[in-house]
Design the sequence.
């Protein structure tokens, strides 16, 4: 098994099981793609047999989130996970990591994550 990281997949080959990654043809037996479906559609070869498949991938609507992780000397709550279900709220969820894992594992600091974006398919997470 060969797992590659920090590469940019430019497209998939039309004639063999290979991807073009950072300008280099990389053969594969199987490929796992973990990005948004519309982005995957943009990597498919331009073949008529794939047009319906690519169109179905592009039709999927997404709600994405950008995470902000910060450290604090003060405790910001007793709960591990708090969902914020208000359309105008500046974040979606508040996760207090040190309510699950002791702050000694975080250098004595409280570590908190806030998911700070409600960008949809046409915004930040749109296929480029």
Sequence:
């Amino acid at each position: 098994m060969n797992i590659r990281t920090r590469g940019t997949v430019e497209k998939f080959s039309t004639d063999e099981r290979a991807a073009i990654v950072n300008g280099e043809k990389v053969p594969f037996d199987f490929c796992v793609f973990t990005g948004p479906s519309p982005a995957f559609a943009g990597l498919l070869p331009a073949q008529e047999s794939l047009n319906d498949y690519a169109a179905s991938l592009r039709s999927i609507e997404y709600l994405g989130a950008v995470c902000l992780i910060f450290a604090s000397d003060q405790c910001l709550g007793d709960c591990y996970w708090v969902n914020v279900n208000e359309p105008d709220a500046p974040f979606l969820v508040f996760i207090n990591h040190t309510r699950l894992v002791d702050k000694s594992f975080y250098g004595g600091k409280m570590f908190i994550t806030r998911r700070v974006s409600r960008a949809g398919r046409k915004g930040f997470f749109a296929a480029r």
Q: What stands out?
A: The longest helix spans residues 51-58. The CA atoms of residues 17 and 28 lie 6 Å apart. The mean pLDDT is 81.
